[in-house]
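QUALITY CONTROL LOG
STEP: pairwise intake check
CHECKER ROLE: data steward
CRITERIA: each record must contain a sequence immediately followed by its structure tokens, with no blank fields

ENTRY 1 OF 2
RESULT FIELD BELOW
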Amino acid sequence: MGKSIASRFDNIDIAKSTLRAVIINDDELTLEMDFCLEPDHEDYETPLEGEDCCWHPGMLKFAGISKLQLDRRDAASDTMQRRFAIEKFNIEGTKFDMECEWGDIHLAARSIRVLTE
């Protein structure tokens, strides 16, 4: 049996992680992330000098989307920002909600995967 969604975030500090990109493709949504890994994560490395996290690229992939609401903030589209801070993050079953500097994302999906590169 696969791991639960919550356990896939073990040793990842979501509050410090950032969103890099939102990619929509048919019934799929991919969120490119810079995850802030905690010391017990298998990919953890000592942070570089001046950094407070072990930054590691990754993705949240949602497939079989039955509901999708993207509310992009005007301020986000006016700047060439590379990372967007996460303000609220919640996954319950097939439902996902995130508020961040980029905007708000609400969806329901058949499949939610957490991938680290």
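ENTRY 2 OF 2
RESULT FIELD BELOW
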Amino acid sequence: MSETVILGSLLYSHIIPPILAFIGVLLLCSGIMDRKMNYTLIGMALFFAAGILPFLILPAVLG
């Protein structure tokens, strides 16, 4: 049981947020340079989600 908690907490705290943030920054840059508001807004949402989601998910995972 504890290995599952450690893997889940590692996944949600150190693996998924940097991936979301990286994709968010790429979409932000692409949206701003191409003047596509959709990409810019999605990039902003992903970047902020990368910062906030660990605080929402980890308490549920760690119990």
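INTAKE CHECK: passed for both entries
DESCRIPTIVE NOTE, ENTRY 2: The two ends are 12 Å apart (CA to CA).
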